[in-house]
Amino acid sequence: MPWVLVFLAGLLEILWATSMKYSQGFTKPAPTLVTIVAMILSFWLLATAMRTLPLGTAYMVWTGIGAVGSFIVGVVFLAEPATAMRLAAAAMIVAGIVTMKLAS
What we know:
Number of helices: 4
Distance between the termini: 14 Å
GO molecular function: transmembrane transporter activity
Largest sheet: none
GO cellular component, one term: plasma membrane
Membrane topology: Multi-pass membrane protein
Radius of gyration: 14 Å
Strand content: under 5%
Pfam family, one: Multi_Drug_Res
Keywords: Cell membrane, Membrane, Transmembrane, Transmembrane helix, Transport
């Protein structure tokens, strides 16, 4: 169950990062509210998972899901560049997440 919580927290991290972009510096109320609520829920789920998971493992997986997921959102929905170097960096993050999960 803790891994499910970390995964959900990571998805919420993608949501709050994306809604933060759309909030335009917290000047738009609806995306700002989504950002704040998603942040609180994401942190709460992560904290709950960390009751049983090691700090470094949980935090790395959570930030990795958020980073790679936000990268994908940027490429797919915001027309951000998907250069070979950026794709390689994302692949290394995924490899790190998988390795950390296998090590725990």
